[in-house]
Hints:
Helix content is 70%, strand content 0%. By secondary structure, it is mainly α. It has one domain.
Amino acid sequence: MKKLLHLLTATSPTVSPLLLRLTLALVFFPHGAQKALGWFGGYGFEGTMGFFTGTMGIPYVLALLTIATEFLGPVALVTGFFTRIAALAIGFEMAVAVLMVHAKNGFFMNWDGKQAGEGFEYHLLVIGIALALIVAGAGRLSLDRAIANKTVASE
C-alpha cells in the first residue's frame, strides 16, 4: 500500500507542475461551480443533473461523477492532493466531452457564432495539461510531495 501511495504522490520540487495545476484549477473551477453551486451563471446541481440525465441521457452516476470531477478536481489540484488522480479524471472527462459533443463541431471554438457548437481545441489543451500532470506529478508546494516524502521516510 505504501508503494502505491508513493507512486501516486512522488513528484519533483520543480515549479512547472505547480503552474500547470494552478492554471488548470483556475480554468476548471468555474465550470464545476456552475454545475455544483449555480455560481457564474450556472444551473446548479439539480439543473445540471436534469440536463445531463434528461436531455443528454447520461446515467445518474456518470452525471454525478462529472459534477464531482469538475468541482472537486480543481480543489485537489490547488492543494496538490492526489494530483495524478484529479488530472486523470479531468482529462478523461474532456476526452468523453470531445467524443460525445464537440468532435462534430470541428477543431475551432465558436468565436464568431457561426458554428453549430464549440469545437474541441480547448479540450485538447486541458487534456495536454492533464497528461503533463499525470507524468510529472504535483511539483512544488503540494500535499502529494509531503505525502511522498513521508512514505519514503517511514520505509
